[in-house]
Amino acid sequence: MKVPSIALSGLLLLHSATAFSSLSSLPNASKQSTTLLHSSSSSKPIPGSLGTGAGWIDPSAPVNTAASLKKTLAKALEGAAFQKRISILGSTGSIGTQTLDIVDACPDNFVVDALSAGTNVRLMAEQCLKYRPKVASLSTPRAAEELKEILTKSGQFSKEDMPNIVYGNEGIVEAATVSSADTVVTGIVGAAGLLPTIEAIKLGKDIALANKETLISGGPVINPLVEKHGVNMLPADSEHSAIFQCLQGVPEGGLRRVILTASGGAFRDMTKEELFRMCEEEKEAVQKKATTHPNWDMGAKITLDSATMMNKGLEVIEAHYLFGASYDDIDIVIHPQSIVHSMIETQDTSCIAQLGWADMRLPIVYSVSWPHRLKMPYKPLDLAQIGSLTFQKPDTEKYPCISLAYEAGRMGGTMTAVLNAANEAANEMFREDVGLGFLDIPKLIEGAMEGHRENGFKKEDVTLEDILSCDAWAREYVKEKTKNVVKKPVVL
């Protein structure tokens, strides 16, 4: 059951949008029929509402076990007068700057030992002057040299106090592994976050996880390492933090189902027929709308992922590795108000939800303070002001990326790395306006998945090298399939 496409000599042509109607209407509905990639499994998975436990794995987050309950209780009883030393990867980005806001609000609880960033030298210099880290890493030698000059000229550092200024991938690893830090906030984007996270885990450091690729692509490698070294994988994004918070105190075997909420993205108020017609007749309008979020201003990549709802499909995979739930026991519900950040269902069918304003600092602060609850100067939630909360099922005819993510997750192994990389590449090319249509994004992703399944797919004994190799292959696949796409539709 393929996402329709026509490919001739590397030229991807936009096919009829109505052909997407062959996809199932719900993530779990496809379980009763042939899967997108024709999985060889002949057994019918059990829906989440009837969850039998099949397909569950050991979680990377400290939940769902007797040992994790004991650990949580012991840490909670230590009291809130704790101090953590943190390393922040991606300190000049959104996650990094918001983490530093938390440090400012709770100076007795946090000390910054290392910072890493890209090429924003001026902001990094300001951060170094304020937080005085032991290590400061930038992406290029030139940026590192410029930072050194600024800090030297400031006169604020003695030779002994000057941060160790490093650069490149080795610099990120050095920031992640600074000996004094006990928690690493992984706020960098992409596969660049995998190696430093792995090296930090090997040294027994807790991970405040904001880098999706760590588990979506690297789950087969990361989860065994987390178990081996006994570290805590603590989610720093809103949905997974919500689930993590809901699971506090839930005994081993008590979790029945995970329910991820989604805003619905730019096209949530359109029917699939309206969306498909718009894709065929108003391509420029589609491009503009797909990169504009209806609720808030986010980065271009995540905004487009929200429009395709691939962001939610990726979060399903991340939830599987974080909390151990089988894919049959992870559901998605659209919640336009974005107040309920996600929910769990326990074995007695009780549903526990975490609510709050859409503020990324909330999940970040819990990831670095768990299991404590710090007093923060944020606006309290006012349900009367909100008035009403609504929910609806996602339509996977309209959003085929959801079904692709479930399928990649069920296949496991290296397939999720291919899904993630192909999506990133297609997302980028759509935003670069090379002539790629909105509906071509899932077609390219499925093509990459099918190609990988036929050649190179690895289910067991996956290594970091396997993941990085598959990531590179999928990006090249998308590039080759789109390099000859023209800006005007081709009529056969």
What is the overall shape?
A: globular
Q: In terms of per-residue confidence, which ranges show pLDDT below 50 for 5 or more consecutive residues?
A: 1-51, 486-492
Class derived from helix and strand content: alpha/beta
**pLDDT average, as an integer?**
87
Assembly level: single chain
**Number of alpha- plus pi-helical segments:** 19
Radius of gyration: 23 Å
Share of helical residues: 40-55%
Query: How large a portion of the residues is in β-strands, by DSSP E?
Result: 5-15%
How do the strands of the widest beta sheet line up side by side? 6-5-4-3-7-8-9
Description:
It is built from 19 helices and 13 strands. The protein is α/β, with parallel strands linked by helices and 492 residues long. The longest helix has 19 residues, at 464-482. Helix 13 (310-323) packs parallel to helix 16 (400-411). The protein is globular, with a radius of gyration of 23 Å. It starts with 5 loop residues before the first strand and ends in a 10-residue tail after the last helix. It has helices at residues 66-76, 94-105, 121-131, 141-154, 168-176, 194-202, 213-216, 219-229, 238-246, 272-281, 283-290, 300-308, 310-323, 361-369, 383-386, 400-411, 415-431, 440-454, 464-482, and strands at 6-8, 11-13, 84-89, 110-116, 135-138, 164-167, 183-186, 206-209, 233-235, 255-262, 330-334, 340-346, 351-355. Strands 6-5-4-3-7-8-9 form a seven-stranded parallel sheet, sandwiched between helices.
